[in-house]
Design goal:
Blueprint: H1 18-21, H2 27-32, E1 43-51, E2 54-59, E3 67-72, H3 75-83, E4 94-99, E5 105-110, E6 116-120, E7 128-133, E8 137-143, H4 150-162, E9 166-172, H5 180-190, E10 195-198, H6 208-215, E11 219-223, H7 230-238, E12 262-265, E13 271-274, E14 282-283, H8 289-292, H9 294-300, H10 317-324, H11 329-369
Parallel strand pairs: 8-9, 8-11, 9-10, 11-13
Antiparallel strand pairs: 1-2, 1-4, 2-3, 4-5, 6-7, 6-14, 12-13
């Protein structure tokens, strides 16, 4: 039995809707409804948890507090998923829900995403995996105790930059080290152009800039490995209990926040997209590497050859900077490693696209040959 729609739907004739605003809705999303194709009565909601074939959706309730409905994918969403797995609803997505006369809710359409955190599939698939959708800020979380992992920080920053959202570095456990400011300064050299915050969540130290973003209505996605303090940070920002209305679920049970991707509303506004700790972080593309390693990109402009790979070519300005100490050798090694992975993933994706196009043209040829007007 599906939960009946508790609210008849938003008035999208105006720029915003007050109850939807609590979920991150704004005038741009309202304008984006022109792209929706689902006819008939619909309700706008935001996915807070997604499973195979269904998802939990936050929808405006009769009061300011949102409700949660469990909604399976509708036919159009299932077809889109078969064609492209990344089209399936994920936490953070805005969706259109339809309701039949028996009050059965279904996800009719996923609205186009503004941003998406996408990593390469761990199984070697040529298609990416969407970790979070429509985040305004992607916070890379790394612990100061033990020392931050530079390579992991750079890798996660590449995901953050490629998402289209604002990258942010949050260094947790500042209360466990004597030189948090110095370590944050070291991390800043790995994250040029990115704000770096050192926080001590037990004492709420350093959290004000994050809370200010949330209060302005931002959705912040948390990325990080297990054990870096993401769950503690989440609890500090949303309180000991999340603002999801779990009482509406049929089983009455909560879910562990660190084993799935889930959206939580913050008490003062905004939302947090929590993701599970990641052991493997594959890159789906190389576009963001220039943002993560801007000094390499700047130095490359002075290389003798435009296609210099910075691997022994004469007149390489990047290697010259390493030799002089201007560019740390570790940074160049990290850049090369991430670039190789991204290029390998791009090659797999290109091969899949070529195969799909070949299949399309073969089918068109077969259909043409079967046409009744063709002479036999």
């Amino acid at each position: 039995m599906h939960t009946p729609l508790p609210y008849p739907g938003p008035d999208t004739t105006g720029p915003t809707h007050p109850h939807l605003d609590l979920l991150g809705w704004d005038a741009t999303w309202a304008a984006g409804l022109d792209l929706a194709t689902e006819p008939g009565p619909t309700l706008v909601g935001r996915v807070c948890r997604a499973d195979a074939g269904a998802c939990d959706v936050l929808v405006p309730g009769p009061s300011a507090a949102p409700d949660v409905v469990a909604a399976p994918w509708g036919p159009a969403v299932r077809r889109a998923h078969r064609a492209d797995p990344t089209a399936a609803p994920v936490a953070g997505d805005w969706v259109l829900l339809t309701c039949d006369p028996d009050a059965a809710v279904a996800v009719a359409e996923v609205l186009p995403r503004r941003t998406a955190v996408v990593r390469a599939q761990v199984d070697g698939s040529s298609r990416g995996q969407v970790l979070a959708a429509n985040a305004d800020v992607v916070a890379v979380v790394e612990g100061l105790a033990p020392d931050p992992d530079p390579g992991r920080l750079e890798r996660l920053l590449a995901l953050a930059w490629s998402s289209g959202a604002e990258p942010l570095v949050v260094l947790t456990k500042a209360d466990l080290v004597p030189d948090a400011a110095a370590r944050a300064a070291d991390a800043q050299t790995l994250a040029p152009g990115t704000t770096v915050l050192a926080v001590a969540t037990p004492d709420a130290v350093g959290l004000d800039p994050i809370r200010a973003r949330l209060a302005a209505g931002a959705t912040i996605a948390l990325l990080g490995a297990s054990g870096v303090g993401k769950s503690t940070l989440l609890n500090a920002l949303v309180g000991g209990e999340t603002m999801r209305t779990r009482g509406l679920r049929s089983d009455g049970k909560g879910r562990h926040t660190t084993v799935t991707r889930e959206l939580h509303l913050a008490p003062g506004g905004g939302a947090i997209l929590d993701t599970p700790g990641m052991r493997t972080i594959g890159l789906a593309g190389a576009d963001a590497l220039d943002d993560v390693f801007p000094e390499v990109d700047a130095l490359a402009a002075d290389c003798r050859f435009a296609d210099c790979a910075h691997d022994g070519e004469p007149g390489c300005a990047v290697l010259a900077a390493v030799a002089s100490g201007e560019l740390p050798e570790r940074r160049l090694a990290s850049y090369r490693k991430l670039l190789r992975e991204a290029q390998h993933q791009a090659a797999r994706t290109d091969a899949r696209l070529r195969a799909e196009m070949t299949a399309v043209w073969k089918q068109r040829t077969r259909d043409y040959r079967r046409r009744p007007d063709k002479k036999r």
